[in-house]
Amino acid sequence: xxxxxxxxxxxxxxxxxxxxxxxxxxxxxxxxxxxxxxxxxxxxxxxxxxxxxxxxxxxxxxxxxxxxxxxxxxxxxxxxxxxxxxxxxxxxxxxxxxxxxxxxxxxxxxxxxxxxxxxxxxxxxxxxxxxxxxxxxxxxxxxxxxxxxxxxxxxxxxxxxxxxxxxxxxxxxxxxxxxxxxxxxxxxxxxxxxxxxxxxxxxxxxxxxxxxxxxxxxxxxxxxxxxxxxxxxxxxxxxxxxxxxxxxxxxxxxxxxxxxxxxxxxxxxxxxxx
Length: 274
Description:
Layout: E1 3-4, E2 20-25, E3 32-37, E4 42-49, E5 52-56, E6 59-63, E7 67-71, E8 77-81, E9 86-92, E10 105-108, H1 111-120, H2 132-145, E11 149-150, E12 153-155, H3 160-171, H4 179-186, H5 190-201, H6 205-222, H7 227-233, H8 239-250, H9 254-265
Antiparallel strand pairs: 1-2, 2-9, 3-8, 4-7, 4-9, 5-6, 5-8, 6-12, 7-10, 10-11
């Protein structure tokens, strides 16, 4: 993960002897990935621009503008960022995370928490625990603990054949193969496949595919692509069809969803309609 700190700290966050440790995620010209790994400290990933996604054995989480991904300590995960993504990364010692989620999730980031993160990355790595900088970190932790969860994630199946099907749909989201067609492709009956998807993800095949489209659509919209372009790329007949699906699932159209977060950030809105 492309990060920087003025004090040039050690690469291993677990080696930093402080309850909280903040880094700035620097923008890159290309997409980047931090392969599967784990660390003792819990982690918060908050993009100021672009989109960050995190995959665990249980699912896929993403952080559109004004949201962050929370990763509990010792959880195996991988992280990906779109080109131009920048933001903040906060590592938290396990004993400091009481009241915070025990599972990976997406959190809404308040303007106060964003301002605190901006300040946290500017202080020395080995800050004075009993001084103003230590108190600042404590306030950041309190605000983090109050952050509400957002249901922006994609449960991933563990079954090998379902995992392969999910990977194919993520790679080619416009694929409109029926459930029976997928059953033929992976060697399962349609009924068995349907039951297994629900058992593994808690969602029907149609619900899972729609959630995938929401995730991928948000990633592309955050890059400034139009709703029409995103809708067609995901296999919808029109922008309005994608907007209807998104509004039914999320409660508001995609442009409004992103605009509310961009307004809080003071960022420029993309030019999509809907």
